[in-house]
Amino acid sequence: MTHAPPTPARVILRGLLWLATLSAVVYGVHALQLDQGWIDRAVRGQGPDGVLIFVLAGGLATAIGVPRQVVAFLGGYAFDWAAGTAWALLASVLGCAAALLYARWLGRGLIVRRLPGLVARLDAVLTPQPFAMALLIRLLPVGHNLSTNLVAGVSSVRVWPFITGSALGYLPQTLVFALAGSGISLDPTVRLTLAVLLFLASAALGLWLYRRYRAQVDP
After folding, report:
1. Strands (E) located in the chain
2. Which residues contact 38 (CB under 8 A, 6 or more apart)?
3. What is the pTM of this model?
4. For residues 53 and 38, what is the distance between their CA atoms, to the nearest angstrom?
5. pLDDT tens digits, 120-141
6. In this structure, what are the phi and psi dihedrals at residue 76, rounded to the nearest 5 degrees?
7. Whole-number Cα distances in Å, 3 to 7, 109, 113, 117
8. Can you spell out the DSSP letters for 27-70?
9. 194/188 Cα distance (integer angstroms)
10. Cα–Cα distance measured from residue 75 to residue 206, given in angstroms and rounded to the nearest whole number
């Protein structure tokens, strides 16, 4: 099946959208000074408005490449370890979806035309089992969150299985860093030990999933 070439108006519109979003990203990088001082000013004690601000700012931050671990740490600092984990996880999922959809709507055609071989290889890995592969990638302490989201966007991976797999895979590290940021009244050694154990458990689960995947690919 052949597709009609894009009209000049569509090309211009996509170009304008590209420039507008890039400008927004640049502004966001400078405007989002995510630190404990910002949390104290804009989030803590602000009720539902503070939660909304945190989730939206955290989602934008992770969408443009701010490490989601930073957002989780600040979530623990702003709320407590449980609420901080929940709101930071929601922010990370929103950032994942935003970056994926941005790449799919504005960059997919260009990248597929320029790098058809690379996209085909990524499709072969991600598309058959999007939930499992997203979960595996997020659990293993490798790769870059933003790059993974953009790669998924230019592939033909199904969106919702990839996002739900990512959400589940984000959970262990989000909990670890929210615990660290919350300053819960535990002995520092106990808190550090708990964080390390959670991290190792998530990495071990990721390795187990990877071995199962390799066994299926190379029987």
Report:
1. none
2. none
3. 0.75
4. 11
5. 777 777 788 888 888 888 887 5
6. -65, -40
7. 12, 12, 13, 19
8. HHHHH---SHHHHHHHTTT-HHHHHHHHHHHHHHHHHTT--HHH
9. 10
10. 25
